[in-house]
Amino acid sequence: MTLPLVLASIIFIFLAYKLHQRLRFKLPPGPRPWPIVGNLHHIKPVKFRCFAEWAQTYGPIISVWFGSSLDIIVSNTELAKQVLKEHDQQLADRYRSRASARFSRDGQDLIWADYGPHYVKVRKVCTLELFSSKRLEALRPIREDEVTAMVESIFNDCTALQNNGKSVLVRKHLGSVAFNNITRLAFGKRFVNSEGVMDKQGDELKAIVSTGVKIGGSLTMAEHIPWLRWMFPLKEEAFTKNGDRRDRLSRAIMEEHTLARQNSGGAKQHFVDALLTLQDKYDLSEDTIIGLLWDMITAGTDTTAITVEWAMAELIKNPRVQQKAQEELDRVIGFERVMTESDFSNLPYLQSVAKEGLRLHPPTPLMLPHRANANVKIGGYDIPKGSNVHVNVWAIARDPKVWKDPLEFRPERFFEEDVDMKGHDFRLLPFGAGRRVCPGAQLAINLVTSMLGHLLHHFTWTPPEGVKPEDMDMSENPGLVTYMRTPLQAVAIPRLPSQLYKRVAVDI
User: Fold this and answer.
1) Res. 17 pLDDT band, cuts 50 70 90
2) Residue ranges in 301-391 assigned as alpha helix (H)
3) CA distance 351 to 193
4) What average pLDDT does the segment 132-147 reach?
5) Which of 204, 78, 188 is nearest to 130 (CA)?
6) 53-60 contacts at long range (C-beta below 8 A, 24 or more positions apart)
7) 3-state percent helix, strand, coil for the chain, nearest multiple of 5
8) How many Å apart are CA 105 and CA 387, to the nearest integer?
9) What confidence tier does 264 reach under pLDDT thresholds 50, 70, 90?
10) pLDDT-based confidence at residue 326 (cuts at 50, 70, 90)
C-alpha cells in the first residue's frame, strides 16, 4: 500500500498547491492542467505555434504548466512591452535547467546569468568592448572572407553538377560560414583548411557541443517534474568530463594567444584576446572568460544559418522579390566587383529583405525564458515570483492587428514604415529587448545581410526540378531554435563573371 499512498500524497500536494496559487494570485487563463504533468501532454512539439493557437482561444497572455512549473506566454506587442520594458528589472532573471546550470557554472557567463552585479559587469564588457562599432569594423575582413568562401564553395558545387541541373544543399554552405566566422571571431582560429578538412581542435570543439546537447537533452522531462528526477539523475560524470574537455580546449587556445601577444607585443581584435587583456580591468574570472567565449559559439552559429536559410526559401518562393533585390544589387554593385559591407547603406531593399526574413522566421521564436524575481502584474494578471515568462516573438510578428498581410513575404513594408528590430519597437523582436537584448545584434545583422547579398548577386535561385515554389516545405523543426524541417535544396545559377567567385582570404 506504500506506493499508492505516496502517489496519492503527491497528487494531493500538487492540487493543494494549485488551489493555493489560484486563490492567492489571479493567474492568466490557459488550458486546464492535469495533476503532476500540468499541460505537458497538451503541448505540441513546435511550441511557439502551439502557444499561438492557444492565444486565439484564451487571449494574448496565457498560463501553461510545465509539470509543476508555471510558465506565462505573452503574444502581443502591448504585453511584450510590459514584460521587456515596463517590468524589465523584475523579469530579467534567467531560468536555468540542471543542464544549463552545469554548462554555465551556475550562471557565470552572460546568457544564463541572473540579473545582478555579475550580469551588469559582463554585459558592459560585451557592449563596450566585444561588440563595439570599432571592433566589429576591425573584424569585418573575417566576415567578408568567410562569405566569399561560401560563394566559391557553392560555385564549385553547382558548376560540377550543372549539366544535370541538380540542386545544392543550401544549409551545408550556410553552416560553414556561420561556424568559421564565429570561431574566428571568438577564438581567432579557422579550424577548417582551404580543402574543407577540420583540424583536431575543430573536431574537439564540435564533439564538445554535440555531447553537451546530447546529455542535456536526456533530462528534459525530469526538469519539469521534480518528483521524477530520481528516475533521471544528473549524469555528473558525463557533465564533468564534457566540462573538463571544454576547459582544456579553451585554455589551450587562450595560452596560444597569450604567447603570441607576448611575442608580438600587441593584442589582436579577436574576442579571446580582448577578454584576456581586459581581465584585470573588469575583474573577470577564468570561468567567466570561458563562459563568454562559449556563449558566442552557441548563440552565433545556428541562429545565423537558420535566418539565411529561411530567407532564401522565401526568396525562392517569391521570385518577384528575388528579382527586385538582384536589380538593386546590379545597379549599385554592377558586374565587375563583389559586394562589401560598406555597400549596405546603398542597398535599402536588401536590408529590408533581411529584416523581413527575421520578422517571419525569428531564429529563437520564444526567446529564452525570463524568470520573475518578484511578484509582478502583466496585463492585469499576477505573475508570481519564480514563474518563467516567454515572449512569443513569432506570434507578435504575424499579428494582423499590427501587420498588414502578415503572412506575406513583402520587404516593401519597411519602406512604408520604419520599424526598428534591435529592441526599440515591440512589433519586431528577433533579438529581444530591454536588459537582456542580444548584445551581438548588429554583428548578426551585418553577417545575415552580407550572406544574402552575395547569394543573390552571384546566383539566381530556383527550386529543384519537379518542385513548385508553392509546394516547398516551410514547416519548422521542434526546438529552442527553428531550423527548417526539410533542409533547403535549390538550384543555383551563376550570374557573374567566373573570376568573381574566388574566395578573398585574409588572416587577421
Assistant:
1) low
2) 302-317, 319-332, 348-360
3) 31
4) 95
5) 188
6) 54/30, 55/392, 55/395, 58/28, 58/29, 58/30, 58/31, 59/28, 59/29, 60/379
7) 55, 10, 35
8) 22
9) confident
10) very high
Three-state DSSP at 460 gives strand
At residue 421, the pLDDT reads: 94
Within 10 Å of residue 365's Cβ, how many Cβ atoms?
25
3-class DSSP state of 192: strand
Query: What pLDDT shows up at residue 282?
Result: 96
50 in a labelled binding site: no
Q: What is the pLDDT of residue 212?
A: 84
Amino acid at 211: T
Spatial strand order of the sheet with 168-169 comes to 168-169, 489-494, 459-462
Contact 453, 348 (CB under 8 A): no
Q: Are 394 and 481 in contact (CB under 8 A)?
A: no
Q: Would you call 432 helix, strand, or coil by DSSP?
A: coil
Q: Could you give the C-alpha distances from 154 to 178, 335, 408, 498, in angstroms and in order?
A: 15, 18, 28, 12
Helix (H, G, I), strand (E, B) or coil at 485: coil
Distance in angstroms (rounded) separating the CA atoms of residues 165 and 363:
31
Residue 383 is classified by DSSP as: E
The three cell numbers of residue 201 are 581542435
Beta bridge partners of 410: none
CATH superfamily of the 120-501 domain: Cytochrome P450 (1.10.630.10)
Quote the CA–CA distance of 311 and 361 in Å, as a whole number: 8
* Mean of per-residue pLDDT scores for the chain: 91
Name the amino acid, one letter, at 469: P
Q: Is the pLDDT of residue 346 over 60?
A: yes
Whether residue 221 has pLDDT greater than 80: no
Measured distance CA(90)–CA(87) in Å, rounded: 6
Contact 355, 410 (CB under 8 A): no
Which strand (E) or helix (H) includes residue 64? strand 61-66
In tens, the pLDDT along 457-494 reads: 999 999 998 899 999 999 999 988 999 999 999 999 99
Cβ pair 370, 92 in contact under 8 A: yes
